[in-house]
């Protein structure tokens, strides 16, 4: 059972789905109102879809993971590909059932995201340098999903969401470039052609650092678009983490980006708890 939970990557699925819920709260002006049940259902649907994406990725990337991450449940053989595929089906169906309790607009957008996510997992090793951009776009889909669920933008903090979306796109892009650089050995072994990223890893690590620094700079914008001093001073820690992520090794760089994202979530949440809307 523990291996099946690991396949779902709860340390990604839960924070991202809660980020979606926080984004929805911002978009609705600080009150879910009569939407609390629908909002809860959409959050569960998000978590299940994110877990589906990670499990499908492992099912599709078993050969590469045997080189890059041999301890993973599928790569190690502790879970079979058939069991992984079955888990994918359960998660996707469960996400759809949860989304049926959300607004129709949310369900429609979520269906589109699910199609792109499945297509990405099937073709990721053929996408080359386009791959990180697709991943970043999928990550930022939490924002249009939140708007689809909210129905409209209200409240003084709604414009901060545009800045957060820009930051998250750049951060997810930088993260995926570093992750692909970390996984070069396995990806080269199974990809039909080597990509520019695989041929010039040092150059792309510098590109990732620049992208992360640009994302960090964008974290100042929400303070001018509705967020207050609590957000700004907490976000300074996130900016520092992003700046360091671009200069340390791949392993610690990825960890620092995760820390950055957690700190931004804490900053955005603490700001409304202390200052309100």
Summarize, please.
The protein has 277 residues and is mostly helical.
Q: What does this molecule look like?
A:
The protein is mostly helical and 277 residues long. Helix content is 77%, strand content 0%. It contains 15 helices and no strands. The protein has helices spanning 2-7, 10-27, 36-60, 62-68, 73-76, 81-99, 104-123, 131-140, 142-150, 160-182, 184-190, 196-199, 201-218, 229-245, 250-275. α7 packs antiparallel against α9. The longest helix has 26 residues, at 250-275. The chain is globular. 43% of the residues are buried.
Question: Topology of this structure?
Answer:
Elements: H1 2-7, H2 10-27, H3 36-60, H4 62-68, H5 73-76, H6 81-99, H7 104-123, H8 131-140, H9 142-150, H10 160-182, H11 184-190, H12 196-199, H13 201-218, H14 229-245, H15 250-275
Helix pairs in contact: 2-3, 2-9, 3-6, 3-7, 4-11, 7-8, 7-9, 8-10, 10-13, 10-15, 13-14, 14-15
């Amino acid at each position: 059972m523990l291996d099946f939970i690991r396949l779902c990557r709860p340390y990604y699925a839960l924070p991202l789905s809660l980020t979606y819920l926080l984004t929805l709260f911002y978009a609705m002006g600080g009150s879910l109102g009569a939407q609390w049940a629908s909002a809860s259902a959409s959050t569960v649907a998000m978590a299940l879809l994110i877990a589906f994406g990670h499990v499908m990725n492992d099912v599709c990337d078993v050969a590469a993971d045997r080189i890059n991450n041999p301890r993973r449940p599928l790569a190690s053989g502790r879970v079979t590909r058939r069991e992984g595929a079955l888990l994918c089906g359960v998660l996707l169906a469960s996400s759809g059932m949860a989304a049926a309790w959300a607004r129709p607009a949310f369900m429609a957008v979520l269906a589109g995201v699910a199609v792109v996510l499945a297509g990405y997992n099937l073709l990721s090793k053929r996408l080359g340098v386009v791959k990180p951009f697709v991943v970043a776009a999928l990550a930022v889909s939490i924002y249009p999903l939140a708007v689809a669920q909210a129905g409209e933008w209200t409240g003084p903090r709604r414009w901060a969401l545009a800045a957060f979306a820009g930051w998250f796109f750049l951060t997810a892009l930088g993260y995926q470039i570093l992750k692909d650089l970390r996984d070069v050995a396995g990806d080269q072994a199974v990809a039909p052609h080597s990509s520019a990223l695989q041929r010039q890893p040092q150059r792309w690590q510098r590109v990732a650092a620049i992208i992360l620094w640009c994302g960090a700079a964008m974290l100042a914008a929400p303070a001018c678009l509705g967020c207050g001093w609590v957000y700004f001073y907490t976000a300074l820690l996130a900016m520092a983490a992003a700046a360091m992520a671009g200069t340390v090794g791949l392993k610690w760089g990825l960890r620092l980006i995760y820390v950055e994202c957690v700190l931004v979530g804490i900053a955005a949440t603490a700001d409304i708890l202390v200052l309100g809307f």
